[in-house]
Amino acid sequence: MPDFEHIRDILRQFEASSAIDVLLIAIVIFSTLRVLSGTRAMTQLRGALGLLLAAVVLGRVFDLTVINFLVDHSFTALLIGGAIIFQPELRRALDRLGRGGLQGWAARSSRSKVIDAIVEAAGRMSQERHGGLFVIERGTGLQDVIETGIAVDARVSPELLAGIFFPNSPLHDMAVVLRDERVVAAGCVLPLATDLSLAERNLGTRHRAAIGITEQTDALSVVVSEESGEISVALGGKLTHVADEERLRAVLEWLLDPSRANGAAGFEPAPRRGGKVPA
């Protein structure tokens, strides 16, 4: 039988300050999960929580003295360890909070500047036959990819993107990673595609990398061919050619900024590789 008297005693001690305590803790937990949601860190967090839960259950059920002692006295160590493990995600959250305040924390940033910059840069590079590869971070964090390149941390612009991929520049052979409205890093090494059809075995390294990063994450990549000047979009491990800048803009708006989308009908986010986007 539940001890209702004990429950009543607890409820009598619950005051306005207690409600504020609970609300603040709930906000912190929700904000942390929101930052980590869709990233690889979320998998690590689930694993850590599962291990901690198993230790608590086993310690209580079998009265394991050492395990119970470690669980009871490891809160501070867990906080420090979490800060070290999730450092990239915490820095990203603080950066977002610092740039946009609480409103920027709650609101989803517009991708309009990123879309405009990529479309203009890709169009210019296509005409001049300059190859390039842009990777746009979405839900899954790309910190491990970013760390393979050179930190840039600059506001996105078509001039910056086209300049990075100017022939013979030190960073033109690799990929650029964009996060929110900033170019985070250039010269980044991407995983190559592992599942290519027979017709795609002749794709170059740049196109294989564009496909490869989207096989392992939910990132979106835009690649410009150095040989033909063709522009393609990769998503979900699938590569699709787009006919021109106007079509590229429509596809990016549909995938990244639906509020501005005005006609990407016919584009499938994961079509059969090599398929054409209907004009």
Describe the structure.
By secondary structure, this protein is α+β, with helices and mostly antiparallel strands. The chain folds into two domains: 4-106, no CATH class; 112-260, 3-Layer(aba) Sandwich (YojJ-like (1). It has eleven helices and seven strands. Helix 7 crosses helix 9 and helix 7 packs antiparallel against helix 11. The protein is elongated. Residues 103-108 and 269-279 have low confidence and may be disordered.
Write the layout of secondary structure elements.
Blueprint: H1 4-12, H2 16-36, H3 40-61, H4 65-72, H5 75-85, H6 87-106, H7 112-128, E1 132-136, H8 143-146, E2 150-155, H9 158-164, E3 175-179, E4 182-188, H10 205-216, E5 220-224, E6 231-235, E7 238-242, H11 245-256
Parallel strand pairs: 1-3
Antiparallel strand pairs: 1-5, 2-4, 3-4, 5-6, 6-7
Helix pairs in contact: 3-4, 7-9, 7-11
